[in-house]
């Protein structure tokens, strides 16, 4: 990649970047560069606050899902609805995976040590895969119950309290989704974000189950098991999305082309950078680590070259997606490995 644009514009951009660095509210200071405090990405939330937010998310997940599972299970037993049974099974699996999520989040927050120099953050995608597995089991249970109702004698599902409680469940799930998703965004946690997405799936699946109950009563009894199958398909869809995303985190998926270009542009915002190449950006767990080479004037002092490298690192780490950056400095014309 080569530098483009006028030198004056680059000087203005660099000055603006440095002013932004000086204006940063460091809060709980976690990284220092050139005697200035630059907060690392996703460290604007202190460890103690992060722990409190994790605990809140876990309480919301376990408490809300367990309550809904019990209520829906009782209604499924009374009404005999396969759609309601599918929804109850999904809520029960949600409560169980929430416990696993709590354990996993605790482990993932352990600090780096000699055996894990990159920290334990890779445990979070593993927790997300447990969530996906729990969702898949709920989908299988939904398919099984719906098939049983198809093979048996389907009867109209009674309305009454069933519809009322399912409407309440939709409201409760939306509140859970809103609260948990906000926490997931604040702490940038794949596990909590997966839990929030599962809450959204529950909202849609409960709404489909409710349609099945009404359809069974007013149109045809077989609409209830059909709704149960639709719920299962929706669960499988969400399971695949969560699995695909988090497997990528575990195997070190690289950044896409658009993000790679943003990384290069950030490096070029430092005027002394003549060229940027060999950008390797990959996920270590949910965190994006960047290794990059830059070319600078080979005749400048070592201290100046070091300063340029620090400025490049600061510029790239300001990108929301990036966690850590390693910069290799080379003289102009050299393309090292």
TrEMBL record:
Q: Where in the cell is it found?
A: Membrane
Name of the protein in its database record: Cation diffusion facilitator family transporter
Per the record, the major location class is membrane
Ranges for the region named Disordered are 1-25
Query: Which GO molecular function annotations are given, in alphabetical order?
Result: monoatomic cation transmembrane transporter activity
Which NCBIfam families does the UniProt record give?
A: CDF
User: From which lineage does this chain's organism come?
Assistant: Bacteria, Bacillati, Bacillota, Clostridia, Halanaerobiales
Q: Which InterPro entries match?
A: Cation_efflux, Cation_efflux_CTD, Cation_efflux_CTD_sf, Cation_efflux_TM, Cation_efflux_TMD_sf, CDF_Transporter
Query: Could you give one GO CC term from the UniProt record?
Result: membrane
Give the PANTHER family listed for this entry: MITOCHONDRIAL METAL TRANSPORTER 1-RELATED
